[in-house]
Amino acid sequence: MVNLELPAVNILSKMDLLGTQARKQLDDFLHPNTRDLTSSSMSHQSFNEKYQALTESLGKVLDDYSLVKYFPLDITDEDNISDLFMMIDNTIQFGEDADVKIAPDNDDEPPDNDGE
Fold first, then answer.
1. Is residue 111 one of the residues assigned to a domain?
2. Residue 22 falls inside a structural domain
3. Whole-angstrom Cα distance, residue 59 to residue 37?
4. Among the residues of 31-110, which ranges form H helices?
5. Cα 88 from Cα 7, distance rounded (Å)
6. What gap in Å lies between CA 72 and CA 25, rounded to an integer?
7. Contact assessment for residue 41 and residue 55, using Cβ atoms and an 8 Å cutoff
8. How many CB atoms are located within 10 Å of the residue 74 CB?
9. 110 domain residue, yes or no
10. Do residues 80 and 73 touch, judged by C-beta distance below 8 A?
11. What is residue 41's DSSP assignment?
12. What's the number of domains the chain is made of?
């Protein structure tokens, strides 16, 4: 994803069907902490010694480029849907190349005098 510069949005649908307890459990999944992920590999000492630098590098890439992002979609909440559209627009950088449009303000323009 980094080399090809492809944006990705991971959408978790059917969040409206979950109860409040399940939503609280999903919070760690929705906002992963890579430090916790890399330190959880400490339990496997032989694996850890061999791949510690690789694990830390992958965690740093995930943090630097924000590659792992999830959006919980609740179709019953209209604000949630508009937040999803805004997240997609930001991810694909929609409208960044568009020219700034300035609305004409007729009060600031001097009147046309044709010399009469």
1. no
2. yes
3. 8
4. 34-40, 45-65, 78-91
5. 9
6. 13
7. yes
8. 19
9. no
10. yes
11. G
12. 1
At position 55, the amino acid (one-letter code) is T
110 backbone φψ class: left, alpha, beta (φ>0; ψ -120 to 50): beta
Average pLDDT estimate for 1-7: 71
What's the burial of 80, exposed, middle or buried (CB within 10 Å: 0-12/13-18/19+)?
A: middle
Boundaries of domain holding 65: 10-91
Q: Other C-beta atoms within 10 Å of 17: how many?
A: 9
pTM of the predicted structure, to 2 decimals:
0.57
Q: Residue 40: inside a domain, yes or no?
A: yes
| Tokens of residue 83, six digits | 């937040």
Amino acid at 15: M
DSSP per position, 84-95: HHHHHHHHTTTT
Distance from CA of residue 46 to its chain's centroid? 35
For the chain, what's the residue count? Answer: 116
Per residue in 39-86, pLDDT tens? 655 555 666 677 888 888 888 887 777 766 788 898 888 999 999 999
